[in-house]
Amino acid sequence: MSSYKTKKTPGNTAWFTHDRFGMFIHFGIYAMAARHEWVKYYESTPEAQYQKYFDHFDPDLFDAREWAKAAKKAGMKYAVLTTKHHDGFCLFDSAVTDYKITNTPFGRDLVKEYVEAFRAEGLKVGFYYSLIDWHHPMFPLDKFHPRRNDANAPELDRGRDMTVYAKYMRDQVTELLTNYGKIDILWLDWSYPEEWNAPEWMQFGGTKGKDQWESEKLIATVRSIAPEIIINNRADLKQDLWTPEQFQPIEWVKDEETGEKVVWEACQTFSGSWGYYRDEFTWKSPEMLINMLVNTVSIGGNLIMNVGPTSRGYFDHRATEALDAYAAWMKVNGRSIYGCTMAEPEFKAPEGTKLTQSEDGKRLYIHLQTYPFGALQFPGLDASRVEYAQFLSDGSEVRYRAKAPSAVPSDHMADRSSCTVPTTVFVLPTVRPYGLSPVIEVFLK
Ligand code: GLC
Fold first, then answer.
1. Is the CB of 245 under 6 A from ligand 1?
2. Ligand 1 centroid vs 399 CA: distance in angstroms?
3. Is 243 helix (H, G, I), strand (E, B) or coil?
4. CB neighbours of 427 closer than 8 A, spacing ≥ 6?
5. How far is the CA of 242 from the centre of ligand 1 (A)?
6. How many A from CA of 4 to the centre of ligand 1?
7. Is the beta carbon of 76 within 6 A of some atom in ligand 1?
8. In whole angstroms, what is the distance from residue 440 CA to residue 445 CA?
9. Which of 245, 270, 273 to mutate to test ligand 1, by most ligand atoms within 8 A of the CB atom?
10. Radius of gyration of the chain (CA)
11. Between 162-178 and 215-225, two packed helices, what is the crossing angle to 10 degrees?
12. How big is the CA angle at 323 (ends 36 and 37), to the nearest 5 degrees?
């Protein structure tokens, strides 16, 4: 069994740390602007102007089953959809607002279709819910608000009552957790509790954290309906899940206060934007995408990879190609991801590789991110512990031998300890076998 233990939390994370790989979906009327989900903030778009997206929103090519199939094919085991993003637009039929999808030309409850389709494919279902709301009339202005620079901002801000908005959030979260069956994850987003140099007229100094959101109450509401649901930390209260975003952690994420290892999930994009962005061209290569998944699991984390569907409701060709890269790799290498975690500390990844290990400790996976033609030396792995080794991609045997210890390190040895510690040498073909980041599956005795 893996020797790593994480901090105990209220939600059920057992399935989550097994499944490892999920799909994030950012969808909303900002997909029509097609220039970032924060477009309303970036361009300080007046409400009346933003309304044109609402009035014309009609993702006629949307088919939840296609989304669910694409996620499943890519090897993803769960999904999290933006039920409401910062612009306040709701993808579900909420009774407490008119600013919702059923009032657009599309007219359907997209959240309902999403839940049904993903469940039908056997995926776990999560909801993202934005704490920030740039549409709600009671949400106080702050440095992230689209109206922050308006000449009449102080008047606009006057009388906004956060307690009314906090209640609205509890009502909506209650709807989300009662109207759609069992929900597995609630992904709240996000808080900025730090003081900053806000103009005096801005309420709360412009900070938004657990006191303003009334996070204790919000989370109590959630737990009273769904005690085991996984909740992230972004309501400024530690819950089940830590969520580093848009960077690659290099070690197991820890609770900053206690130093304990925690359950964590890196959230990443294919191209830098979460919402559909037509003219964004920093799309990650297939190799990078695979490495991101492997790197994450190799230090005990999950990866949730984002897709921003077009405003017509489908995944564009770039997103589809990125998902296909995962599909091809996961089809044969999924075993090195599901039910796997960071390798035991006794195993140190040889240069150019990453390691994952099955939770039961019986299989070690060597991910060859840089292909070492001819042979791979694995100092610290005693050949007598190896029962069998194969390439995971095609189940072809990888022969190995114990390296005889030598007193004198040879010049080409990057790691000179390899001459003294027990070392296994895996014999590899000169040319990398087909597929990115090949994996050697080592059955341990
Ligand atoms: C951020 C952004 C946001 C995105 C989210 C995903 O906090 O505000 O647009 O939804 O991260 O992690």
1. yes
2. 46
3. coil
4. 374, 375, 398, 399, 400, 401
5. 14
6. 29
7. no
8. 16
9. 245
10. 24
11. 20
12. 10
* Most ligand 1 atoms within 8 A of CB, residue of 190, 191, 236, 241 to mutate: 190
Q: Between vectors from CA 30 to CA 29 and to CA 33, what angle results, nearest 5°? A: 115
Residue indicated by tokens 């029962």 = 387
Q: What is the pTM of this model?
A: 0.96
Residue 440 Cα to ligand 1 midpoint, Å, equals 36
- Dihedral over Cα of 145, 149, 150, 155: its sign: positive
Count of alpha carbons within 13 angstroms of residue 249, beta-carbon side: 20
Q: What angle do CA 383, 386, 389 make, to 5 degrees?
A: 115
- Extract the runs of DSSP E, i.e. beta strands, from 107-153: 124-130
- Cα of 49 to ligand 1 centre, how many Å? 23
The beta strands (E) that lie in 48-99 are given as: 78-84
For ligand 1, whether the C-beta of 265 sits within 6 Å is no
pLDDT by residue for the chain (445 residues), tens digit each? 999 999 899 999 999 999 999 999 999 999 999 999 999 999 999 999 999 999 999 999 999 999 999 999 999 999 999 999 999 999 999 999 999 999 999 999 999 999 999 999 999 999 999 999 999 999 999 999 999 999 999 999 999 999 999 999 999 999 999 999 999 999 999 999 988 788 888 877 789 999 999 999 999 999 999 999 999 999 999 999 999 997 889 999 999 999 999 999 999 999 999 999 999 999 999 999 999 999 999 999 999 999 999 999 999 999 999 999 999 999 999 999 999 999 999 999 999 999 999 999 999 999 999 999 899 999 999 999 999 999 999 999 999 999 977 655 555 555 555 467 999 999 999 999 999 999 999 999 9
Q: How far does the centroid of ligand 1 lie from the alpha carbon of residue 363, in Å?
A: 36
Q: Which alpha helices (DSSP H) does 214-310 contain, by range? A: 215-225, 286-297
Measured between alpha carbons, how far is 158 from 178 in angstroms, rounded to an integer?
Answer: 34
Q: Torsions phi, psi of 232, nearest 5?
A: -85, 180
